[in-house]
Amino acid sequence: MKWSFRWYGEGDNIPLQYVKQIPEVTGVVGTLLNKLPGDVWEVAEINELKQTIEAEGMNLDGIESVSIHDAIKAGTDERDYYIDNYIQTIRNLAECDVKLICYSFKPIFGWLKTNLNYEDFDGSLNLVYDQSIIDNMEPSEVFSYVQKQTKGFALSGWEEERLAKFNSLLSLYDGITREKLFDNYAYFIDKVIPVCDETGVKMAIHPDDPPWEIFGFPRITKNLEDLKAILSLSDSPNHGLTLCTGSLGADPDNDLVQIIKEVGDRINFVHFRNVEFLGEQKFKECAHYSIRGNLDMYAIMEALVEVGFNGVIRPDHGRTIWGENARPGYGLYDRAIGIGYMQGLHEAILKNSK
Ligand SMILES: [Mn+2]
């Protein structure tokens, strides 16, 4: 496995040197926070990010996310223009030897939590989702509700620019059914994957978070059935998945081990984290350890080993602990604890299997 860590570039208050001090973490998954969905990522900008990381002796393992413009997701007349931009970004990343792109295909709300700073029994701050809060809100209220909780850190998917355009976004998705969204996705994959095959760039679609529909907007990345439908669009190994255990795992009906067994050969990237179920469509992003949540993280790691996964894997969201001033979900300390735990599981599984 290639042990990695998400890093927000110049907008991250965690120095790369600190990330490098986590044993065996040789690279980061990076981003350009100034890029909006639909923008072309220029070679010079990608190289600048890459050189910053390489100057610390680390690798740029991939990008998350290169966001998809709403015109593509909603299938408007402008989609070909934005798909061409996306293709140019793929080519530019390949030119810089960056060969992994995480992305998602969700209308309006990429990822959503109702409390970004839930204080747990031990004083740690956790991310919590509670559907009953969302049920009492209008879609237009959600952006400002989330933004108030970010402690001033930029969070991808929750940019001011998108909030400003919220009403036009809403009308863009008027009448978009699940089938229509899937067709629009298929159209995008048809155009993009041949370019990935030519350049060697791996795409990795991230599941819905949470893995159910919100405000009636359709979702197509919620469960094993969805993932199989997605993968059926192309047999190319460059058309693959981000296995985000915490996103899929928030639905108790999703069996992560079964998912890995069935589509494991198409996993291009792994986000590893646990969740604790608090009730119907209500959960907390807890510490990574199995004992702190409802997912069997040992069984998940074992299934990844069994299917031969050897790509980029990183600890997903962590708690905020030890007084750190951190971007919600992306502090240094708890993610470092998380990856140490992941590496421990991995070593134990390899040694047990001999
Ligand atoms: Mn994730």
Automatic annotation (TrEMBL):
Iron as UniProt keyword: yes
EC primary class: lyase
SUPFAM superfamilies named among the record's database cross-references: Xylose isomerase-like
Keywords of the record: Iron, Lyase, Manganese
Cofactor: Fe(2+); Mn(2+)
Annotated Pfam families: UxuA (PF03786)
Functional pathway: Carbohydrate metabolism; pentose and glucuronate interconversion
GO BP terms: D-glucuronate catabolic process
Enzyme Commission number(s) from the entry: 4.2.1.8
Reaction equation(s) it catalyzes: D-mannonate = 2-dehydro-3-deoxy-D-gluconate + H2O
A molecular function GO annotation: manganese ion binding
Assigned protein family: Belongs to the mannonate dehydratase family.
NCBIfam families linked to this entry: PRK03906.1, uxuA
Cited function: Catalyzes the dehydration of D-mannonate.
Protein name according to UniProt: Mannonate dehydratase
Organism: Suicoccus acidiformans
